[in-house]
């Protein structure tokens, strides 16, 4: 059984886990938080006295003259909605090669962690699942358990560490439902939502917790295997526990409005869970299916933040220069190399936007510019301010 601690994400993961900064260094879903206690809304009966009409004033009428409006009983209850949505939820098991015998060269795939996933597309011979990247990262094999208990091996279609989204594919005629996407841009604080996933592993598969949208458009700083990033998320107080990663956050219509990913795990903190908005997820999965990864502008430099730079590299800078990113290495075939940037150059602006650190440059590059844009970069070399114009290329390798 996998152990949990305060630094894991919401999947039951015993492998590499992202590390958080500052207060949000505790952002993760690997802490067993207290279950959300919902306040029941009481049902009040109407005790107002009813007016009576003297019997002598009442004239009997034929029932055929009554204006009768039938009351429909066909509307789905919340339980019906959840039952249908749960058929699209799967368990995801990260299998990794392990060799417990030091005298043997062979190794076997063993369970390293579990999470959740959502079936969002089916064809005649396959089904596609969206989950978190950190659920399947470093897996040598990925196993998926369907709602009826059937276990199948999944193929990794594509993944993106920065946004923590991955797409899996299972072949065959899959007897499972497809979850419809909702419009996450319509969410407001106070909207009712439900989280469905596999907390603490597959023994508690398709557990449902209820809450509200606490806030929208939150930005959470995360450390990923691809570098620092600010993740756009929905905040909810629906209970999220280890194993919920990659599971669904749905609205009361049963539509997918988010992929559960994170939770603040600090003593005394409850009800702070985060999900990746469905509108962002749709954009990402389309790219992952088409390219196997998210195609972004590519500068071609490895960077270190200003506060990580040894003093000897910044001693010639003007006193008012206190932030930036130093070039640690350059791809010789990149746009940066072609524009004349060199190792030890200290970048301070890109497209007129100030660079405070290496993650700041990445944020500006990916959020404000596109492939093919000509971008002016300002940098210091030997204490002298210089500029270079870079034509951004794609991070997609051409075969």
Give an account of the 3D structure.
With 399 residues, the chain is mainly beta. It folds into two domains: 241 residues, Thrombin, subunit H, CATH 2.40.10.120; 98 residues, Pdz3 Domain (Roll). It has five helices and 21 strands. The longest helix is centred in the last third of the chain and has 14 residues. The N terminus is likely disordered.
Q: Helical stretch count?
A: 5
Output the radius of gyration: 27 Å
Q: Give the CATH architecture of the largest domain.
A: Beta Barrel
State the shape.
globular
Content of β-strand = 35-45%
Q: Bin the helical content.
A: 10-25%
How many individual β-strands?
A: 21
- The chain-level mean pLDDT equals 80
Tally the structural domains: 2
Give the N-to-C terminal Cα separation.
43 Å
Structural category is mainly beta
Largest β sheet strand count, sense and barrel closure:
6 strands, antiparallel, barrel
Strand order of the largest sheet: 2-3-4-7-6-5
| Sequence of secondary-structure elements | EHEEEHEEEEEEEEEHEEEHEEHEEE
CATH class assignment of the largest domain:
Mainly Beta
CATH topology of the largest domain: Thrombin, subunit H
Parts with pLDDT < 50 across at least 5 consecutive residues: 1-8, 11-74
Summarize the helices and strands and which ones pair or pack.
Elements: E1 12-13, H1 78-86, E2 89-98, E3 108-122, E4 126-131, H2 133-136, E5 141-145, E6 151-160, E7 165-171, E8 192-197, E9 207-224, E10 227-236, E11 248-250, E12 256-263, E13 273-277, H3 278-291, E14 297-298, E15 301-305, E16 325-330, H4 335-338, E17 346-350, E18 353-354, H5 358-368, E19 374-381, E20 384-391, E21 393-394
Antiparallel strand pairs: 1-3, 2-3, 2-5, 3-4, 4-7, 5-6, 6-7, 8-9, 8-11, 9-10, 10-13, 11-12, 12-13, 14-21, 15-16, 16-17, 17-18, 17-19, 19-20
């Amino acid at each position: 059984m996998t152990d949990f601690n305060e630094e894991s994400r919401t999947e039951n993961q015993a492998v590499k886990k992202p590390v958080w900064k500052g207060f949000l260094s505790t952002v993760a879903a690997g802490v067993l938080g207290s279950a959300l206690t919902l306040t029941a809304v009481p049902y009040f009966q109407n005790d107002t006295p009813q007016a009576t009409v003297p019997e002598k004033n009442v004239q009997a009428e034929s029932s055929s003259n009554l204006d009768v409006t039938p009351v429909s009983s066909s509307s789905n209850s919340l339980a019906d909605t959840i039952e249908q949505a749960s058929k699209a939820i799967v368990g995801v098991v990260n299998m990794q090669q392990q060799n417990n015998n030091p005298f043997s060269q062979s190794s076997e795939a063993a369970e390293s962690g579990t999470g959740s996933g959502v079936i969002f597309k089916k064809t005649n011979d396959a089904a596609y699942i969206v989950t978190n990247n950190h659920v399947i990262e470093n897996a040598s094999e990925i196993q998926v358990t369907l709602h009826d208990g059937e276990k199948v091996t999944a193929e990794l279609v594509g993944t993106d560490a920065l946004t923590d989204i991955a797409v899996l594919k299972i072949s065959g005629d899959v007897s499972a439902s497809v979850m419809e996407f909702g419009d996450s841009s319509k969410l407001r604080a106070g909207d009712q939502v439900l989280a469905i996933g596999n907390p603490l592993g597959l023994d508690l598969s398709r557990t449902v917790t209820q809450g509200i949208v606490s806030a929208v458009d939150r930005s959470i700083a995360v450390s990923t295997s691809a570098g620092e990033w600010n993740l756009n998320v929905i905040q909810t107080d629906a209970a999220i526990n280890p194993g919920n990663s990659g599971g669904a956050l749905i609205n009361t219509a049963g539509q997918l409005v988010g992929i559960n990913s994170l939770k603040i795990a600090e003593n005394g903190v409850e009800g702070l869970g985060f999900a990746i908005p469905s509108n962002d997820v749709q954009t990402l999965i389309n790219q992952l299916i088409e390219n196997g990864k998210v195609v972004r502008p590519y500068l071609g430099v490895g960077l270190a933040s200003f506060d990580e730079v040894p003093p000897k590299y910044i001693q010639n800078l003007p006193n008012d220069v206190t932030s930036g990113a130093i070039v640690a290495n350059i791809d010789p075939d990149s746009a940066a190399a072609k524009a004349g940037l060199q190792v030890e150059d200290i970048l301070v602006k890109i497209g007129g936007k100030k660079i405070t650190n290496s993650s700041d440059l990445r944020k500006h590059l990916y959020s404000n510019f596109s492939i093919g844009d000509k971008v002016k970069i300002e940098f210091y070399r030997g204490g002298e301010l210089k500029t270079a114009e870079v034509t951004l290329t794609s991070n997609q390798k051409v075969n």
